[in-house]
Amino acid sequence: MSIIADDNNSKEGKRNPIIKAEAAEFDKNFENSIRPKTFDAYIGQSALKETLKISIEAAKKRGQPLDHLLFYGPPGLGKTTLAGVIAGQMDVDIKITSAPALERPRDIIGILMSLKGGEILFIDEIHRLNKVAEEILYPAMEDFILDMTTGKSHTVKTMRIPLPKFTLIGATTKAGELSGPLRDRFGIVHRLEFYTEDELSKVIERTAGILNIDIDTKGALAIARRSRGTPRIANRLVKRVSDFALVKYDGKITENIANESLDILKIDEFGLDNTDRTLLKLIIEKYDGGPVGIETIAAAIGEDVRTLEDVCEPFLLQAGLLQRTPRGRKVSPETYRHLGYKNIQNIQQQNLF
Ligand code: ADE
């Protein structure tokens, strides 16, 4: 199985080519080096793994490609990794791209025409696919046909080009933003869940093993507790904590060293970072606990709405620290307690913001 990434011409890449490309490249290389390649090595999402194993087995018995699959859920939970594992189990190649890279019709046409029988096409952030690309995908997904038009007005010609049978795996953080017709064309739809502390501990110990990082069980659990249920965060934190352990101590990550290092990184015992705390404190201190619109919050703290919605909010919502209402976001009594407000009625005078 080989993995071919095809996202060099993403919009973000064009806007800020150097910084984006370098940061993205570094993250990708790091993530690729520790990605599990088999279901056995892939920790967590056990119910999902079991159903996928059955679907794969059935597809193999029929001698057919797997049905098109849609994975949704917060970022960093392993959607791309899982697609790679599936390709490995099916023993086929996978081509990886993301919707913002499929800006022009020729982008999606090119990638569809490059597919070989049985291969997997992985499209990340599929909710961001434009209308034209979607229209090209429908017959490709349903009948493995590429409908192409050439020429203009009265000279327009349509061609129907057969494609080899392939499997599309779409991934999205926002299943609700996917158009109905596109969602309906996925035979299998699965939500990825946040990981338990136990599962994250195992992910951390596995990653530490690959990277030759010395860590004990309690050290792994201490990092897991502050990783927001997300393996991508756990893997980044284990590296940061390892740097700290190496520079300040003898290199081994223990519970105390992990906690000291994460305190310095300003990641609290819930896993909240500065942005999360600023967001929650803003709602509490300037908007009396909410509700307040996400655009107002984003403008006040200088963050992008999409980053808040896709990256910060999913964990805060699931941790019960933030609620979404038709009139905007509000916090819960637990949020006040967690951030150290003693008297909810009197917070303006405490001036903690
Ligand atoms: N690294 C990132 N996600 C992982 C997972 N689910 N299992 C093992 N290692 C991982």
Could you walk me through the main structural features you see in this protein, from its secondary elements to its overall organization?
- The structure is a single chain.
- By secondary structure, the protein is of the alpha/beta class.
- The chain folds into three domains: 3-191, 3-Layer(aba) Sandwich (Rossmann fold); 197-264, Helicase, Ruva Protein, domain 3 (Orthogonal Bundle); 274-351, Winged helix-like DNA-binding domain superfamily/Winged helix DNA-binding domain (Arc Repressor Mutant, subunit A).
- The protein contains 16 helices and ten strands.
- The strands form three sheets. Strands 1-3-4-7-2-8 form a six-stranded parallel beta sheet, covered by helices on one side.
- The chain is globular, with a radius of gyration of 23 Å.
- Mean pLDDT is 91; it is low at 7-21.
- The structure holds adenine (ADE).
